[in-house]
Design goal:
The protein is an all-alpha fold. It is built from twelve helices and no strands. The longest helix has 33 residues. The termini are far apart.
Length: 228
Amino acid sequence: MRKRWSVLLLAAVLLLGGVGFLYGTGFFEAARSLETLRAYISDAAPYSHLCFLLVQFLAVVVAPVPSNLVAAAGGVLFGTPAAFLMTFTAVVSGSLLTFSLARTLGRTFTERFVSRKLSEKYQDVLRTKAPVFLTLAFLFPFFPDDILCILAGLTSISLKRFAWIVILARPWGLLFASALGGSGLDLPVWGMVLIALAGLALFCLGMKYGDRLESCILRRLEKPKHTP
């Protein structure tokens, strides 16, 4: 019981402190676009690297801001390798923290951050096919990665296995975003235009058919119900 209350107190301090920091420094306003976010991080010089790492970590834990957007802003400021390494470190750390908090504090913690509708939507498939589903969810852009990290903490999957899934499945989108921001792809103009058009097409398809594809994956992964 003492351990539970200690973790709860630590989580409360972290979350309240993180939200207070982001709000007080104008992060939520800056997160409206890549340009304003880049300016927000740049203004923290000479501690821009530390600010970026902290913001990326808090974005995973307390702020509903896509990590890819922050990674792209970091790519502009620090280049692809540095932005990716800092983003990867922050995202993995944040994912493991939210998983561990949910594992320790249970539904009392998750219900404060995840709506009942979303929880019911993913809990069945997480209980039966957590490793496969989490791997697919982290690879596809239309799943709420950070929320799934919280819900995964309520399942029987081990922290070690969850950590390996995060390490192997989450970095690819972050690497691409960092490379785009830092122009690390080293492509000609026509190549960048094609990528931009492809990205726009994928975004439009995701907006239109993402729910259907998500539902299809969920249906295929659901445990078959055997009738007596």
